[in-house]
Input
Amino acid sequence: MTTLLISADSNLDDWMDAWREAAPHRPVVCHGRAPYDPAAIQYALTWKPPAGALNALPNLKVAFNLGAGVDAVMADPTFPSHIPLVRLVDQDLTNRMGEWVVLQVLTHFRQTLGYLELQRTKTWRDLTQPAARSARVGLMGYGTLARHCTPILRGLGFNVHGWARGPKESDITLHHGEEGLANFLARTDILVCLLPLTEATRGILDAKLIGQLSRGTPVGPVLINAGRGGLQNEADILAALQDGTLKGASLDVFNEEPLPATSPMWDAPNLIITPHVAAITDPASAVGNIVEQIDAFEAGAPLQNVVDRGHGY
Amino acid sequence: MTTLLISADSNLDDWMDAWREAAPHRPVVCHGRAPYDPAAIQYALTWKPPAGALNALPNLKVAFNLGAGVDAVMADPTFPSHIPLVRLVDQDLTNRMGEWVVLQVLTHFRQTLGYLELQRTKTWRDLTQPAARSARVGLMGYGTLARHCTPILRGLGFNVHGWARGPKESDITLHHGEEGLANFLARTDILVCLLPLTEATRGILDAKLIGQLSRGTPVGPVLINAGRGGLQNEADILAALQDGTLKGASLDVFNEEPLPATSPMWDAPNLIITPHVAAITDPASAVGNIVEQIDAFEAGAPLQNVVDRGHGY
Output
């Protein structure tokens, strides 16, 4: 009944404390801290585990990912295909992502960078400002995070639509599949990417995609990515910002993190960089969810939010 | 049946065009452009009219203000007390104000200025970030604009409460009156001021008020003012930003506008200045509302949003 914490993150104590608080009756050990018996491990809490580490646990029942993106675990070919991998779906994480997405949409739409520059030069001048109802926000990747953002963005007055891999129920217009992508992009002034990183999505944010975005509002098109850096062709994004094909962008993630000080992205015009902080997992909130899942699982309930190995998320 | 446009703003053509579009059968004249018969004027569309101008219209039935704040008309002692003055309540104006308020709340809460400075120095480092549920946004002045912001801010996860002059119906906690103000401020991390400017509110945003705000979150207290510059004691706000009593502020309005280039406010730390653009009135939208009101008024319906002369708004 032992749980193993196996994470590449530095805040291991926070996770261990959260676990002991939420499940004092469930023993927990931390990979890399002290020896443990691999055969005793039934559950793993994992974030970017070293390749092969999960395969070394013969009695592992479930692996719980400690963030929304499971691309690091999926990239480990030794991860046993019969072990369910559970994505973290957590209200705290969802809320934080919503804060970041709505902030970035409004920052570009209301021209914060332009006004900060006017302020720096002590210039009192207004910039042409359309109303939110004249702009269309496109949510690319329509899962829990996008669903959370939709009513907030609509409450602000934006037109919101989405794109998903396959058809889904939704109360907004949802384009889907390869064939729906061009229509979606042509109707999007502000693109918010919340896609998982899979073999199908790697590098999808490139010049071809950017070139298909609507140019129907003076403050767009804008690219906002809170998914994974691997979705980005950063040379293409940089070029699009430099030549004005993109009016602005916000990127929380990069192909190489930390973004090297030598990267030209730091100085790209109208680019807002945040250091992979859009939605940081709160250990107490996430562990609470996971312990509830384990209790239900042991009582016979099916696991929620299990990764589909075929789709990779 | 003639309507008079009498505005200190520069976009008179936009208003005249909007009127002719919305009410082609209703003659309209523009003050200062060509002579007109004062006795023919029944309705006035007005924005910061010169003192005495409205008093010169013997058959004026209603004056419609072309913005949310009526302090300029109220300051004219010759404005006849028997003429109803109608405030502009317009969904477009409300939406734009919502965009600006939510943007400013998130900008400070998610530390945009801090991250822009880290980006400038090519530094990949995260700042301690609480979740929205740990912060309390206080809406001071709880009318149409605040009511619009409430569900959006709650959707983002913030705790929202308000303060109003007198008791009002609301589904959030609403403090009221002089006696409720201290309680309201002590429970507010991010103060959003949407008050009208009256003799009771002039200079209310001063050191005494700022000193009462909660210091319960590392990113607060924050002061956001989209009301009128006359609400502000700007020397007190500057000092509070300089000594850290305020962690941040966003001001769209100032005692003197345009803000003079010599003002020390331009360089105040963690202050975001926008040049009175939070919610610009869209002539087409506003005129549509006003023509509807006139049609209803002539059919015998009572006027909506009439200013209470006693309260001054």
